[in-house]
Amino acid sequence: MAHDYIGSLIEQRLNRREVLQSALLATTLPFTSWAASPVAGKLNFSAIAGSTDDRVVLPPGYTHDVVIRWGDALSSRVPDMHTADIPRGSLLQPDAARHQSQQFGSNCDAIHFFQLNAGSRSTQGVLCVNNEYTNDWLMYPGRKQVFGSDPQHVREHILKYPSIVSMSKAAHGISVVEVHKRRAQWSYQKDSKYNRRITADTLIEIKGPARGYTWMKTHADPSGTRVQGAFGNCAGGRTPWGTYLSAEENIQDYFGNFAGFYARKDIDLSVVAAHQRWRMWSDVSPYGWDVVDKRFDANVEPNEAFRFGWIIEVDPLNPAKPPVKRTALGRFAHEAASPIVAANGKVAVYMGDDDKFEYVYKFVSARHFDAKQPHANADLLDEGILYAARFDADGRGEWLPLVYNPDGPLNAANGFRNQAEVLIKARAAADLLGATMMDRPEDVEPNPLTGKIYIVCTRNESRTDVNQQGNYGHRRIDLGPNAANPRGRNLWGHIIELSENDDDHSAVKFTWEVLLMGGDPANGQLLTETAQLKPGEATVQQSYYAGQKAVAQLSAIGSPDNIGFDAAGNLWIVTDGSQPGNHNNGCFVCPTSGEQRGLLRQFMSAPVDAEVCGCVFTPDNETLFLSIQHPGEGSTLSSLSSHWPDGGSSVPRSSVIAIRKEEGGVVGT
Ligand code: FEO
Ligand code: CA
Ligand code: CA
Fold first, then answer.
1. Would the pLDDT of 29 be above 70?
2. What span, in angstroms and rounded, lies between the C-alpha atoms of 597 and 14?
3. Can you give the pLDDT at residue 32?
4. What three-state secondary structure class fits 198?
5. Residue 21: its pLDDT value, please?
6. Residue list, CB under 5 A from ion ligand 2
7. Residue 155 — φ and ψ, nearest 5°?
8. pLDDT tens digits, residue range 352-361?
9. 613 C-alpha to center of ligand 2: Å?
10. Given phi > 0 = left and psi -120 to 50 = alpha, else beta, which region is 357?
11. Fewer Cβ atoms within 10 Å of its own Cβ: the N or the C terminal residue of the chain?
């Protein structure tokens, strides 16, 4: 119904800009609006088997377009990147960074589609895609693997080729690009007025309670109100008012010289505690930017790291508008930011903190969403309450407010002098409130059809089978299982379904249950009752698919990461990491209600050593956009494990693909 209604409005009275905003709103109205969706349909495709092929594998009748690849030029002012030249050192050349700053960025992750065309079919839109990080050892000859390589090697390599830093910064951030479906195929539009790059050097506004706070000030920005760049951007979201949210995640990998900083006698110990809580201790960071750019040197700019780890808001249709870091949503290793309008008109944003033993968060806006005036919502995310979740063993739970209060517990006596410090140290605040330590919560999203929230815990190899105190990072914690994270050594991950009390997304209490516990039902034990998911009893050989019993019909899955929903409310899951059978990562789908609830089947398999992310449908559900991130990541330039997507002996590159039916129609049905 929503699309027909919007279509008639379009013909009646809206100008183009309003048409765009209405089309955007059509996919983000409160969850009940999907109920009569014209594109809802039952899943009906031939599930594929897990694969180790270096290609995109799809069910019969499906095909995909490679829409845009790392290095494709967004503007005709720069050339496309030629990956054949990379082993000869092309990205070490003086022009590489300037070119990259107008080319599609590296390691694409979160995708959101903002439809431009009127009508019920999706044929033209703007894609916002974030570019999480770089695989330096597949970019620069002579560089060893970023992680686990010795600091001396990184330092020497960066000092030999300092232009790497500007090149890599240009490859990070966010890419905004116009896309079209022409003669059934998707491609991107070079030189579109919407095309835009945000890199690790782009100026970004800081707003919300931490704006201008002492800890946000640096030599380059004594006001603490503007920061250079974004990096480590992982999943994201889209707001009901048509903007894109990007989540800064693994920022600890970009800062160095902590030993030098921590050795000083003249420093604020609460700053030290804040950095240590984030496991910041590198001498030389894995990327090595700190070797030549002193803003990443903790001993020179101890506050710079406080300016990262936020949610960033981008207006995709207004390229001149600076992006904004929204500090009210807290600072942690953000994965996803999924808004939904609550029944009372406030906006709830669901978020995960993707590290072992970290938390699930929700922000609830102070003000109400204004559907009639999208621009009135521009700063809606600057005022509200941030909560962290506590999951109780009886299937209930509570959202705990991260609010400074002189009477405690979040007060100066406990290390929080004001609300800015509560938000900058959100993890420590959630520790104090007794939030539940999860198995790396990645995507957290409401199902737009039912309003239920899905929390994806990707895995946690460090959780122990028995409850015992131990060290993780600088914390002494219980490393063992709990009700919401029942498996000790959780190799395959699990998904939790959360129902807000009274279906009110601004509520502070909820109920929850495990929907799915990953693994390999055919080569292990399939559990069929929630009562079997007792903490400490569930093992790595066991799996659970919402009570489904037919082993032969279920696909094995590990490391669920990002999710998406089609208009029928089916849960689409993409993976990043270990899979049963050592298969490649892929895309899976299951219904969330009815007899087939939890009947998970594999829909797609990715190229070798790639993770799959993005996972967003066009409003007409005829296209599923996925990010194929870091194909070939486990290999080296001299011995590549993937040549996707260009084939032959090419260097692999991350790309956005569009999956569609060969004959057209709703994907999955
Ligand atoms: Fe960048 Fe949590 O995946
Ligand atoms: Ca992710
Ligand atoms: Ca991940």
1. no
2. 41
3. 35
4. strand
5. 41
6. 234, 561
7. -60, -45
8. 999 999 999 9
9. 7
10. left
11. N
Residues 495 and 516 sit within 8 Å (Cβ to Cβ): yes
Q: Is the pLDDT of residue 131 over 50?
A: yes
Which three-class secondary structure state does DSSP give residue 471? Answer: strand
Clarify whether residues 95 and 23 are in a common domain: no
pLDDT of 63 above 60: yes
d(C-alpha 483, C-alpha 342), whole Å: 27
**One domain for residues 26 and 95:** no
**Domain, as residue range, for 93:** 71-103+134-170
CA distance linking residue 251 with residue 442, whole number of Å: 15
- Determine the pLDDT at residue 150: 87
Query: Exposed e or buried b for every residue in 97-126, given b needs 16+ CB within 10 A?
Result: bebbbbbbbbbbbbbbbbbbebbbebbbbb
**Spatial CA neighbour of 155 closest among 300, 287, 281, 304:** 287
451, 31 Cβ separation under 8 angstroms = yes
DSSP states along 147-187: TT--HHHHHHHHHH-THHHHHHHHHSEEEEEEEEEETTEEE
Q: Does 297 contact ligand 1 (Cβ within 6 A)?
A: no
User: Which atom of ligand 1 is the closest one to the Cα of 333?
Assistant: 2
15 has pLDDT over 70: no
Enter the tokens of residue 99: 């070119």
Tell me which H or E stretch contains 250: none
Q: Do residues 49 and 584 make contact, with C-beta atoms less than 8 angstroms apart? A: no
Strands annotated E in 447-532: 453-457, 469-472, 475-478, 494-500, 509-517, 525-527
pTM above 0.90, yes or no: yes
Tally of structural domains, the chain:
2
Q: Which of 149, 170, 191 is the last residue of a domain?
A: 170
Compute, in angstroms, the gap from residue 409 CA to the centroid of ligand 2. 32
Q: Is the peptide bond before 560 cis (omega within 30 degrees of 0)?
A: no
33: CA distance to ligand 1 center in Å? 30
Residue entry with tokens 């609300």? 419
Nearest CA, atom 3, ligand 1? 234
Ligand 1, residue 234: give the atom nearest the CA: 1
**Ligand 1 site, residue 335, Cβ cutoff 6 A:** yes
Helix (H) / strand (E) element for 11: namely helix 2-12
Residue 385 identity (one-letter amino acid): I
Q: Let me know whether 34 and 165 are in one domain.
A: no
